[in-house]
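Lab channel / #folding
Pinned by the channel admin:
"Please post every new chain as: sequence first, then the structure tokens as a reply. Keep commentary short and put observations after the output so the thread stays searchable."

First post following the new format, from NK:
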Amino acid sequence: MVTVGEHPAVCHNLTCNYNYTVPVGEVTAYTFTQSTKVLTITGTNLPANTSMIRHVEFAHSKCTISAASSTSLTCTLDNVPVCGSHLPMLFSKMGLVNTTSTLTPTVITCTATSIVPTTDLNLLGGDNLTITGTNFPWNMPRSDISITLSDTQKTKCIPQWSTPTTLVCLTSPFDKTVSAG
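Reply from TO:
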């Protein structure tokens, strides 16, 4: 078996011609301003030429680079940041640029301002609930979402689709004995 790092790899005819490279650069700090969606990364030996940068990601969004040097990179998120705990990821043409272990993730919070309907829900489940708010995932397959209602049995509501401001979930069956009162 052939492995790359710790990951198994499959090679055509069992002939692998991997080129291993030494990781280049390190992200040592960053700032993110949510109101403007501007991310600034600082570090050492970063790709100074934008042609050497594959892409930058933060909070499930790619970032459009406006300035780059060997010690700093500034970009603006292409999409609304998704709630969760996030660190920036800088991908050079040579792979992911390391980040120092002391970086603290930025927490982007979701807010729910309303949910409908709130009455006449089917005890057997199957109701679509529409939640409005902010910073909901705009790319469901890349997001890990768990919604639990505040009833005694903590009924699950399975996410169906979302935009940054709307999320629709499908209710699971409620506990009939508790809900029937």
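NK: The CA atoms of residues 27 and 152 lie 45 Å apart.
TO: also worth noting, The helical segments are 176-179.
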